[in-house]
Structure formats: structure tokens, C-alpha cells
Design brief:
The protein has a domain at 1-224: Immunoglobulin-like. Helices cover 2% and strands 52% of the residues. It has 2 helices and 41 strands. The strands form 4 sheets. The protein has a 24-stranded antiparallel β-barrel. Strands 1, 3, 6, 7, 8, 9, 12, 13 and 14 form a 9-stranded mixed sheet that branches. The longest helix is centred in the first third of the chain and has 12 residues, at 2-13. The protein is globular, with a radius of gyration of 26 Å. The chain starts with a helix and ends with a strand. One of its GO terms (biological process) is carbohydrate catabolic process. It comes from Maribacter arcticus. InterPro entries: Carb-bd_dom_fam9, DUF5916.
């Protein structure tokens, strides 16, 4: 009954304020009257005829006035490209602030400009392009109305020039690099500027300060003088050639060399629907995962970074919740070679979106693991303005499965399937959002053929932040291609936060937030909870400070080692309760020297105590070098046999950006908990748009005794060839 009432409230709320909020903010774009050279100067005659967008609105620090830093935007197009010219004048005289020349920079740490494109005008999906004040590019796909996946790369060019009075950004995006519906003359569009000199974020259209400027619900309208040109037959071939040398001291210590070729093909079935093919893919150039100290009872989540899985990735990855995913692409091909894969994704029209994927992995002779096929289908329909309803089917099938009497049948299942439906709420004014979903798993045994469902409703205004959520995961639910942290529980969680806004002084806003997460078994007996009260201060110069008090209770459902070091396990059914206090501080991003401190003091399992201290310090020699160090220290005091344990996690990064096309990233990670010291160096030369040369070196050592575990050196060459 609770689920049905919440779901019906979703349906009612979707009808609130159905009209697009900033529909009347319109920028007319007409075909270029002459050639345009991308030089960051903008003196081509064609720009004189382009309509101008200006008179921006302030979003931060307060959204009740016009921006003080002037900005002008012009757009035009020809048969091949979409062009943009942006000029950012400096009313506040000071040096520019940038972190580095790294592509897809951190938004809050750079003077920057971002374009948000909504070609289907659905206020949900689109593309983002931009640059910081020194010319580092930014691009990503947009989903869920305001989120941006920066792991997506596309082929486009840009240039930045600057002086004391202004900086100018000029770009050309090929129509073949984006997806849109043929014949449509109105797109959603908005422009965002962050100026750290004045601590001002502004937008072409008015946007309430509680929402990001990427909120497509508040975009304006780009009006074409004629429908943008059809891209015609559009395909890209992205081959790669790779050579590597590796040695694994833990398995024989033999030095192995390897040569490999493969690649991807992108083919536009329509102007908005894309076919991706991959053969013998390799992801060695992908940025290495940051290590973390794990004192949790459940598996940690690491995001997908591999390019093949990213375009329209929300169709596959966003079904369910972060801790209940029926499909998680990192289950495919991280420890098993992928032979080939195909994917169709995109918009069928302004209402329907489709995602279909099929991946085939090779068998592993050493372990006896059979080859496996992974098939996924996701279908989504927009309803009630910005909301949507969708379905997903996931199938993992073993090929040449072992015979019934083979011991491997206990390790590798013959198949695992998930089928589900989901409703996503997004109100026209972005204030209300929510979700309701149901998933059913199918497997050879009843022990893995269960269900899960969840729902939430959230409200956000300038002063209030409210959310209520419930989940139920049955003990026999399984998602072998998904990410499910725990099974056999019901959860009820919520939060309520309020902000106060002083009229003057260094504090921009402050206020409390109460959070509670309560877990029960399927017989509604409480098994654990976490509740905490936080108070946060946001300062006008963009630094922040937070304090919290927490209460935790755990009844263990399985044996657990609280030290994370494999010393001994607490018994199933044992009960533990403790309190803690903590703080978080983040310095202002305008400083060349930045720092952050996080701490937690309090109780722990078995009436013990835990102190956790984390810090991050950074210094930049802008725009070429960014240095960063991360330190995490844990001190755990428990009765015997654990006694007192302490361990460090230390990370050091040196990000050198010689130009906005030549990068050298270095990461060192020292993790006492996992007894591992890791070195990872990655050199990247983007010699042509979306085409790269990579040299990647990685080495892992045991900390104690100090000796090499494994190392590898990879040379990889990729080239993006358009038709």
C-alpha cells in the first residue's frame, strides 16, 4: 500500500507546471554568410550577422539579480559544423584561475564556460561542450535532466585567446559528432559561466541557485532559420595498435610481450540513433581506479570509464539505485578478454529512447571459465513533460557450459536474467523528482530467482531539501551483471535540510540537515541503522565547513572483520552500537594552494573506538602543473584478538599538462590495508581531434616484504577516422 500511494503521488506531481520554464528565452541562429576560422579571435565577417545572447543572470552567490561580469554569445552554422563565439569581459580585474590544461577539468576549480545542448528539447538528455580560460576542452553527454558524463569524448575543435580585459572562446562542433532529430527547428540551449575572480556563476536564462546551470528544465530555445542539415551517412572507424610487456612475480615471474590490434566502428543508423561495434577491444589507457580504505561490510562501487560503454550510458547504467543496479558494465571484460560487442543506442524520436547491447567474452582455459554472452535491452518513453517510464532486460548466458557433474557448475551459473520496469519523475520546475522500480531475477535455482523494488520522492527549493525513500531486496534476488550491495532486507531512509541566508558577512548560507537510514530483515526486524545530524556553512568565497553527530547500530548478518586486515571475524548475530562526531572543510578554489580536511572520532564495533583523519592538499603552477596529495589515517582500538591497529592510505598525483593536447599524469598510491604500493604513469598526446598516442606504465609492490608484485608497459596508438 505504501508503494502504491507513493507511486500515485508521482503521477499527480508530474502534471504540475508542465510548460517549459524559460521557453521565451530564444536565440535565433542562421546559416553563416561566409567562412569561419577557429582562432579565438572572432573577427570573421560571418560573425557580424549573428544574433547575440547577453545580459546574463546571476545564479551564485545569489539568484535575484543580473550578473556583474558581462558575457556575449553568438552562434551560426554551415553544412558541416555548428559554431559558437563567446566573449567574457572582466569587470573584476585579477588573474585568471585555472587548475591545468587537462581535458574535462573540474568545474568548480576553473574560470570556465559551458554550453548545454538539448537537441530533442526533452529537457532530459543532451550534450555539453566548453572550455576553461586557458583553452582546456570539456565535453560530455547529459542525462537525468542535469547530470553530465565527462568520460564521453567526441571530435570537435576550439581555441581560446585572452588579455586583461576579456577572454574569447571559439569552437566548431561537426554535426556528425552529435545526435539530433531531422527536420526539427527548435532545440533546448543554455550557457553557463563561472568566474572565480568574482565568485560568480551566471547563466543566460534565470536558474534558481539550488539547481546546477546544467538543468535542462531551465534551458532556453535555439531557433534555427531552417532545420539543421541532415548529417547523411555518418560512420567513424577508430582502430588501435598496441604493444605491451608485462611481468607477474606472483605467477611465475615470466616476462611476457604482446601485440594486439582492434578497434571500434560508429555508424549512424539515423541522425539520432547510433550503432557501435567493437572488435578485440583494449582499455589499457583508461585512468586507474583511486584506492580507498574499505572498512565497510559490503562491496565498493567504482565507476565505468571505458569509452565503448559511455554514449547514452544512462539508458543502461541508471536503472534502479546506486546500490541496486540490474546492469553494471564493469562486470564485463575487466578480468576476461572481450572478443566483440555491438550496441545500438539513442533517440527513436522526441518520446522514445532505445538501448540494445550484446558483448561476447572469451573462455579462460586456466580456470575453466566458459565463454559468456551478455545481452541488454533498455527502452524508455518520455511522459508528462519531463518524466519517463522504462523497461530493462539483462541476460548473462554461459556458452559451452560445463556438464552437470562438473565441479565448475558450482562456480559459473548457466544463466542469470533480470527483467524490470521503472518510472522516473521530473517536474517541470525541477523541484520534485522521484523514482519507482520493480525488478525480477531468473536463474537455474530458486535461490537466485527473486525480486527487488524501490521508490523515492524528493523536493528541493532554495531553503528546503527533503527526501523519502524505501527499498526491498529479497534474499533470493540476484543480478550477476549488476551491482547489488546486499540482499534480504527492507530499507526506509530520508533526509530533511534547511538553509538560512545572511544578508551580509562572509557566510553565504548555513543550515542543518538530518539523515536516517534504517534497515530491516524481511520479517521487519531491525538489523542496522545510521542516523546523523549535520550543520553546514557555505562561504561567499566558495569554501565550506560541515560538522556532524552520528548514531550507528549493527546486528551482523554474516561474519565480519572490523579491522579489514583479516585478523578475526565477529560472529553472525552479534549487536553493536556507537556514536561519533566529525567535520569536513574545503578551502576556496581561487588559491594556488588548496586543502581539505575530514575527520571522524567515536565508537566502533565491539565497544571499540575508531579515529579516521583524511586530508587533501594541492598546489598548482597554473596552467601547466597540478600537484596533489591525499592522506587517510585510521586508528582502530578493539579488544583482543584485534587489539590496536593503524594504517595509512597515501596518494600523490602530479598532473603535467604541457599543452591542451599533451598530458602526463602520474599517480602513486600507498595502501597499508591491502599491503600494496602502486605506481601509474600515463602519457597522452592528442595529435588529432579524438586521436591519441598513449604510453602507460604501471607497477605494483608488496609493502611488506617490499618486493615487486607485477608491472607492465603499454604503447597504444588510436586514430579516429570519419567518412
Amino acid at each position: 500500500m505504501k508503494y502504491c500511494i507513493l507511486f500515485l503521488s508521482f503521477l499527480c506531481l508530474t502534471n504540475i507546471n508542465a510548460q517549459k520554464k524559460n521557453e521565451n528565452y530564444r536565440l535565433h541562429i542562421k546559416k553563416s554568410s561566409g567562412p569561419i576560422t577557429i582562432d579565438g579571435i572572432g573577427n570573421d565577417a560571418a560573425w557580424q550577422d549573428a544574433e547575440e545572447a547577453n545580459d546574463f543572470f546571476m545564479v551564485l552567490p545569489m539568484d535575484n539579480r543580473k550578473a556583474t561580469e558581462p558575457t556575449t554569445i553568438k552562434m551560426t552554422y554551415d553544412d558541416t559544423n555548428l559554431y559558437l563565439l563567446a566573449t567574457f569581459y572582466n569587470a573584476t580585474k585579477a588573474n585568471y584561475f585555472v587548475e591545468s590544461l587537462r581535458r574535462d577539468f573540474s568545474f568548480g576549480k576553473n574560470d570556465n564556460f559551458l554550453l548545454f545542448l538539448d537537441p530533442f528539447n526533452n529537457q532530459t538528455t543532451g550534450f555539453s561542450f566548453g572550455s576553461n580560460a586557458y583553452g582546456a576542452q570539456w565535453d560530455g553527454t547529459m542525462y537525468d535532466g542535469s547530470k553530465i558524463d565527462l568520460n564521453w569524448d567526441s571530435k570537435w575543435i576550439s581555441k581560446v585567446t585572452r588579455d586583461e580585459e576579456k577572454w574569447i572562446f571559439e569552437m566548431a562542433v561537426p554535426f556528425k559528432s552529435i545526435r539530433y532529430e531531422e527536420g526539427v527547428k527548435e532545440w533546448g540551449i543554455n550557457f553557463s559561466r563561472l568566474d572565480l575572480k568574482s565568485s560568480e556563476k551566471s547563466s543566460w536564462t534565470p536558474i534558481p541557485r539550488q539547481f546546477p546551470t546544467a538543468s535542462l528544465a531551465y534551458s532556453g530555445t535555439l531557433v534555427w532559420d531552417a532545420p539543421p542539415p541532415a548529417p547523411g551517412t555518418n560512420f567513424s572507424i577508430i582502430p588501435y595498435v598496441l604493444g605491451d610487456v608485462k611481468q607477474n612475480q606472483e605467477v611465475g615471474g615470466v616476462v611476457k610481450t604482446n601485440a594486439k590490434i582492434g578497434g571500434d566502428i560508429k555508424f549512424s543508423l539515423t541522425s539520432s540513433l547510433n550503432l557501435d561495434l567493437t572488435v578485440n577491444p583494449d582499455f589499457s589507457q583508461v585512468e586507474v581506479d583511486r584506492q580507498v580504505t574499505n572498512l565497510d561490510r559490503f562491496e565498493l562501487f567504482f565507476p565505468e570509464r571505458r569509452q565503448f560503454f559511455l554514449e547514452n550510458g544512462d539508458l543502461f547504467a541508471n536503472f534502479g539505485y546506486e546500490t541496486i543496479r540490474p546492469f553494471f558494465s564493469r562486470r564485463i571484460g575487466l578480468n576476461v578478454p572481450i572478443q566483440a560487442g555491438a550496441r545500438i543506442s539513442g533517440n527513436l524520436n522526441d518520446k522514445w529512447r532505445l538501448g540494445v547491447m550484446d558483448m561476447q567474452t572469451a573462455p579462460i582455459e586456466e580456470s575453466g571459465q566458459p565463454s559468456q554472452n551478455f545481452a541488454v535491452m533498455s527502452l524508455q518513453r518520455k511522459i508528462f513533460g519531463r518524466s519517463s517510464i522504462g523497461m530493462m532486460f539483462v541476460n548473462k548466458q554461459s556458452i559451452n557450459y560445463p556438464q552437470e557433474n562438473d565441479s565448475l557448475t558450482d562456480i559459473y551459473s548457466k544463466y542469470n536474467r533480470n527483467l524490470g520496469v521503472e518510472y522516473n519523475l521530473a517536474s517541470a520546475n525541477n523541484a520534485w523528482n522521484g523514482k519507482a522500480f520493480f525488478l525480477k531475477s531468473f536463474a537455474p535455482t530458486d535461490d537466485d530467482s527473486g525480486f527487488t523494488q524501490g521508490a523515492h520522492l524528493a523536493y528541493t527549493s532554495r531553503k528546503w531539501n527533503l527526501r523519502l525513500q524505501e527499498e526491498w531486496v529479497s534474499s533470493d534476488y540476484s543480478a550477476e551483471v549488476g551491482f547489488v550491495r546486499r540482499r534480504g532486507y527492507k530499507n526506509l531512509s530520508g533526509k530533511a535540510g534547511h538553509l538560512f541566508f545572511p544578508k551580509a558577512g562572509p557566510i553565504l548560507s548555513h543550515g542543518p540537515e538530518l539523515n536516517g537510514f534504517y534497515y530491516f530483515n524481511e520479517q521487519l526486524k531491525e538489523t542496522d541503522h545510521t542516523a546523523y545530524l549535520a550543520y553546514k556553512f557555505d562561504f561567499r568565497k566558495r569554501s565550506s565547513l560541515l560538522f556532524f553527530l552520528s548514531d550507528d547500530y549493527v546486528e551482523l548478518l554474516s561474519p565480519f572483520d572490523p579491522s579489514g586486515l583479516g585478523i578475526s571475524n565477529l560472529t553472525t548475530g552479534s549487536q553493536h552500537n556507537w556514536n561519533a562526531l566529525g567535520w569536513e572543510f574545503q578551502s576556496k578554489p581561487q588559491s594556488l594552494f588548496t586543502y581539505a580536511f575530514t575527520g571522524r572520532l567515536g565508537g566502533y564495533y565491539q565497544d571499540g573506538s575508531r579515529t579516521s583523519l583524511t586530508s587533501e592538499v594541492g598546489y598548482r603552477f597554473q596552467p601547466y602543473v597540478s600537484l596533489k596529495a591525499n592522506l587517510n589515517y585510521n586508528h582502530i582500538n578493539l579488544p583482543a584478538p584485534w587489539n590496536t591497529n593503524e594504517f595509512w592510505l597515501i596518494g600523490a598525483e602530479a598532473d603535467i599538462t604541457f599543452t591542451n593536447k599533451l598530458f602526463f599524469a602520474n599517480l602513486l598510491q600507498y595502501n597499508e590495508q591491502s599491503n600494496n604500493f602502486n605506481i601509474n604513469s600515463r602519457f597522452q598526446w592528442r595529435y588529432s581531434p579524438a586521436s591519441d598516442l598513449f604510453i602507460v606504465y604501471t607497477n605494483n609492490y608488496f609493502i611488506e616484504p617490499y618486493q615487486s608484485r607485477n608491472w607492465g608497459l603499454t604503447l597504444k596508438f588510436t586514430y579516429w577516422l570519419n567518412n
